[in-house]
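hey so u asked for the seq, here:
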Amino acid sequence: MLIVTGPDDRGKRLDLLLHERLPEFTRSRLQSWIKEGRARIDGKPARSSATIHGPSTIDFEPGIVPPLKASAEDIPLEILYEDDDLAAIDKPAGMVVHAGAGIYSGTLVNAILHHFATLSKTGGDLRPGIVHRLDRFTSGVLLVAKNDKAHQYLAKQFSSREVEKVYLALVHGAVYPDHARIEKPIARDPVHRARMTTRLATGRKAWSEYRVLERSARFSFLEVRIGTGRTHQIRVHLASIGYPVAGDRLYGAKAKAEAIPEPARFFLHAHRITIARPSDGQRITVVSPLPEDLRNWKAMALDRLCDNDDK
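ran it, structure tokens below
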């Protein structure tokens, strides 16, 4: 749409002017669209803080307005465990858990709304049933609460560190020692906002514990247990000690290993979770097997390179 400014608009900020002309959108939403490059003043890209200096032509393209409530979609799901209170889903890599960052369909929430008659409402209309999350490209077991009581019971276990979470990861390098605990605070990187970092004293406390399952000269296959659930925790912790997760370019993984194709995603899988069941308090463990794509890549990385290392 084209918006023509006049003398009365002189000195106004771009985001405020757009909010005056388009009151149906919030100022924060307009600012996010401007940041996406959807606004031009006299043909030039502009920031939210840009000042209108005189008669101008603003070319503005509104983005998609996200839904206020998630909708059901018939998306296949693999259910690892289910009872009257909860379900454990084997989340595939590439699936977003809930709407956000411009993604409003094809999420795990859209899928579980189709598969289950009831879900907890504690997380709101956009996150029904969601107790915890996994990164988009992390596969593995994820819990869903079917009612608010179960949600609160599970959430309390997560907050009190009573949930045991075990991941499988393939990392660059021959990891030593065979077993160790990493205790480093994690914070948002102030320069690269998509990354987390362990270099700031202001970070939140976090610990991860790894055990080497297999090793070659160039790669190690690890079991990782985490006691906290910080953003990118395993990825940033392992990278901080010099062993980035294979395929994780964000945290320094090599683009290509000798004789091995680059994986389609980073090698991290939520393998096992142990909780107290809401119905009776009994401890149960749900296991998600390593997916075929990661099994194949692990075989190439360890078996083939082990053969080469022996020559």
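The mean pLDDT is 92. The first strand starts at residue 2 and ends at 4.
lmk if thats what u needed
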